[in-house]
Amino acid sequence: MANFSKVALLTLLALTSGACCSSLCAQPADPDGIQRKLTGKYLELRIRKQREHIEKQVSEGTLEKDQAGQLKNSLDAMAAEIEVDRTRNGGVLKPNEARDLQNRLNASRDVLQTKAGANKHVDDGPNPLGPGWTQGRDGGENAEKLKAEMRQEEKRELRQEKQNSAEQIEKQQIQYEQEALQALSKDKDSIVKGKSDLQTIRQDNGN
How many DSSP H helices and E strands does the chain contain? Predict the structure, then answer.
């Protein structure tokens, strides 16, 4: 009876440990990619990609050079900040640091997308004044052609609304950029201090 109890107990333990291992194996190691963003080069890659988009939009004429310069300066400041934070924290970013940088990169990306959409011209189409009257077979108005022209007009109006919306967003974004640049200028001293701290850390480490 004692031997049977031992066997039952060992079997139960084996099943339980197997279930636990299965559940642990089933759990993703990094479900939200947080660890990858803190320790990997995810943010640095985003900065490099945004620099490439800036150059592309300048060459396509959808982004002015002064706007491109402002965005590049912002990206340079973020890259320097990442380097300082990683050096200070042993090669990783703190969650709040990574979250703040990612939000700023999202804002920079939104600026690029807004500029790309707002500077595209919407063609007025063959009938800028709207669909006209056309004669049908029976001498009356050609209903099918009128419907087709009305659909084209609706599409044109929709494109125009999108352009107007993009222009409005651009105005708001310009205001946001101005405020961001003002805030960035206020933070200039802290950025310079951060670079100085990084240099001091490198000297202390013999680099």
Answer: 7, 0
State the Cα–Cα distance between residues 127 and 110, nearest whole angstrom. 34
9, part of any domain: no
- Cα-based distances in Å from 173 to 70, 111, 119, 169: 13, 7, 14, 6
Task: Output the CA–CA distances (angstroms, integers) from residue 141 to 126, 127, 133, 152, 177, in the order listed.
Answer: 19, 17, 6, 18, 53
Secondary structure element (H or E) that encloses residue 164, with its range: helix 143-186
- Residue pair 116/57 in contact by the 8 Å Cβ criterion: yes
Which pTM does this prediction carry? Answer: 0.46
pLDDT tens profile 60-85: 888 888 888 888 998 999 899 988 88
- Report yes or no on 18 lying in a domain: no
Token pair 């004692």 is at which residue? 2
Residues of the chain under the 70 pLDDT cut: 1-40, 116-143, 145-147, 150, 177-178, 180-192, 206-207
In a domain, 132, yes or no: no
**Structural domains counted in the chain:** 1
Q: Which residues pair with 141 in a beta bridge?
A: 135
pLDDT tens for each residue of 18-51: 444 444 344 445 444 555 555 568 888 889 999 9
| Nearest alpha carbon to residue 180 among 126, 120, 111, 132 | 111
What is the domain range of residue 76?
34-119+152-207
- Residue at 199 is within a domain: yes
